[in-house]
Design goal:
about 300 residues; alpha/beta; four-stranded parallel sheet; 14 helices; globular; binds 1,3-dihydroxyacetonephosphate; binds iron/sulfur cluster
Length: about 300
């Protein structure tokens, strides 16, 4: 790319960022972004975090409008927690394949087969599924939330078999696991971890609990993306290997310029998390689109499951 072309795109980007800042003021809006979104989106956001931090932040927003940069279930959670506010998602097609692996009807069928069981959903689920559950968890609080159940309480855990299996293992319990999974986190393998360790001897390996058991076993820590940011801040390690969606590297490197971060799998990208761009973020604020709406009867039931989690 020539210097002139680079300069042109730099100016376009700066103009879009300036437009976003002006529109944000005009609309009295706040921009929330997930740790996996594009670096330029994280940089323009008011707050970047993991699912739990974003859900908590969504309860503290004073602005009239929340623009949610992430995937649909996250924007839906913000809408459920803020019935009086307008929640926008720049690209409404940004779904989460794992969240779509179970429907409300399938969960109702499962519950009917297990009377007396408590239904627990990972926050990566649709509002309709949350509405069927007793409580919701995120990867940042799952162990703490699940520890509140009596050890002999029967649990149906949906939709992520890996997070459910991870927590059951930590607490020494057995859950009925829905066979859902994250296609992006399937990309990490124990062999990829061994290769990364060989290239960076001594570097701790962080993976997300959405990774399979053999991958979690091969790593040093299974953490939420917020947990990874905390680990990076507090660790003395100069090099850290990261086995999750590579969007998080932007934040890790920005917050820890004295440390080096390497992806365990270079091409580990969640395509849906990359759907938010500066351009569609500006368009969302300009045209007040796409409004995230959850029918109130579903939202009311889902809100109970999310509130139960936030109370713990
Ligand atoms: P975190 O809550 O850890 O950010 O995870 C969200 C997610 O979608 C992981 O794939
Ligand atoms: Fe869903 Fe996986 Fe993307 Fe997270 S990384 S949003 S679980 S598809």
């Amino acid at each position: 790319m020539s210097h002139g072309t680079r300069r042109f795109w730099y100016n376009v980007r700066m103009t879009t960022i300036e437009e976003i800042r002006a529109l944000k003021k005009e609309r009295n809006a706040v921009i929330l972004a997930h740790n996996y979104t594009r670096g330029e989106v994280q940089d323009v956001a008011d707050f970047t975090g993991d699912s739990l931090e974003l859900a908590r932040r969504a309860t503290e927003v004073e602005a009239d409008v929340i623009v949610f940069c992430g995937v649909y279930f996250m924007a839906e959670t913000a809408a459920i927690l803020n019935p009086g506010k307008t929640v926008l998602i720049p690209d409404p097609s940004a779904g989460c394949p794992m969240a779509d692996m179970i429907t409300g009807a399938q969960l109702r069928e499962l519950k009917a087969k297990h009377p007396g069981a408590k239904a627990v959903c990972y926050v990566n689920s649709t509002a309709e599924v949350k509405a069927e559950c007793d409580i919701c968890v995120t990867s940042g609080n799952a162990e703490k939330v699940m520890a509140t159940f009596a050890p002999d309480q029967e649990i149906l855990f949906v939709p992520d078999q890996h997070l459910g299996g991870h927590i059951a293992g930590l607490l020494g319990r057995t859950y009925t696991l829905w066979p859902g999974y994250c296609p992006t986190h399937q990309m990490v393998t124990a062999k990829a971890i061994a290769d990364a360790r060989a290239a960076h001897p001594g570097a701790p390996v962080l993976v997300h609990p959405e990774c399979a058991k053999d991958v979690r076993d091969a790593a040093d820590h299974a953490l939420s993306t917020g947990g990874m940011c905390k680990f990076a801040r507090e660790s003395d390690a100069r090099e850290i290997l990261v086995g999750t969606e590579t969007g998080i590297l932007h934040r890790l490197r920005k917050e820890n310029p004295d440390k080096s971060f390497y992806p365990v799998v270079e091409r580990m990208v969640c395509p849906n998390m990359k759907k938010t761009t500066l351009e569609n973020l500006a368009a969302a604020l300009r045209d007040m689109k796409h409004v995230v709406k959850v029918p109130e009867e579903v939202a009311a039931a889902a809100r109970k499951a999310i509130a139960a989690m936030l109370e713990i």
